[in-house]
């Protein structure tokens, strides 16, 4: 309710009612935000701890102890630092009292102008859409892994247990069509909480199984520099897999695309940037512990022969029921994470449609679904048809490109530098008026340049990996 409307009601003698009703809205006229540091942490953890954590043993194997462990630590520190810079841009020009920026693109436009805003939008929405495709592939691999685990258990580890991913991708797509009718980001708290719990569950199982294998004395051979050049590995192979490993690690920290939307769910006071920084610290430090554990213990358990995904690549066969449980946790987590990454895409498309056709009932009209006298749900024509088409297209693309590690590396390499580093750094420089060529300016530019080089070499490695995979796997006919 606007201030003018409230003043009119005060003059009409209904001031108490108006003030009570006004308490349901924030300073921008939108419904009162209810998010806390814990709900924001749950959203971030759901976004961070994803399928990429299961590839960290493989990534560490490519880099070795001398490269893998420091890389994980450095990526963690950079991500936390730049995420905090991004948190200060939610309101502008002042981070506490300024105007709200509801999306990443709005933050960039308010600080860096229209051209940077368009560039940010392209990268962000390609990233979000790509994450959905990657999650569809990963969920299907985990569902097939459950079936394969039971097959190996009953027929032996040498059995030919090959199954198509396509039915599982289609099944996930159908389920996500129903979940996509959740109207906005603010309604995802319960789903994100469940997904965050699931991510801890399967990461813990992977860590526990790796630790048990190490304690039993069955750990693989590890080296300081990782996979060694030899008969099966040429210097070129080593170089490309090292690049792809950097892309995989970058992917595990590629969650900046949804940080602004998460921050927009927070209530205040205290100021949103203060709460968001606490959530960033909690989430990044928590996930780094899991990342280090999965990467290091997984590498110690499997050595230089670590599989691309330690729970679906069948580094472990027994206990088969625990492998099944871990993969079930992965699927449940992905169901929630899928919605976390698609909601900003839906919001952007629907906001554009409302601005273009403001009087269309198909776009703005809501059809309440009631049970008795209570409205339990509301259907909207654009939401129903538009989101359904998006899920269908994402599912078809996932069926056409079913390459796990290569897709992770490509997504990570394409989006880590611009979204996680470049835009937060440039906005911070602009907002705080850091003098050009000063020591602080040079250090921030050096950070951005180094991360750009990492993204560039990771992109080269991932493109080479996808090219190799396309030569050996036919789209729509992928079996694992």
- Strand portion: under 5%
What class, by secondary structure content?
mainly alpha
Q: Work out the number of β strands.
A: 4
CATH fold-level topology of the largest domain:
Amino acid/polyamine transporter I
Radius of gyration: 24 Å
| CATH architectural designation of the largest domain | Up-down Bundle
Summed up:
The chain has helices at 3-11, 15-22, 37-48, 56-87, 104-112, 114-155, 166-179, 189-215, 235-252, 259-263, 272-302, 320-356, 361-364, 381-400, 404-432, 439-472; strands at 91-92, 99-100, 367-371, 374-379.
List keywords for this structure.
480 residues, mainly alpha, Amino acid/polyamine transporter I, 16 helices, 4 strands, 3% strand
Break the fold down into its secondary structure elements and pairings:
Blueprint: H1 3-11, H2 15-22, H3 37-48, H4 56-87, E1 91-92, E2 99-100, H5 104-112, H6 114-155, H7 166-179, H8 189-215, H9 235-252, H10 259-263, H11 272-302, H12 320-356, H13 361-364, E3 367-371, E4 374-379, H14 381-400, H15 404-432, H16 439-472
Antiparallel strand pairs: 1-2, 3-4
Helix pairs in contact: 1-2, 3-8, 3-11, 4-9, 4-11, 4-15, 5-6, 5-15, 6-7, 6-12, 6-14, 6-15, 7-14, 8-11, 8-12, 9-15, 9-16, 15-16
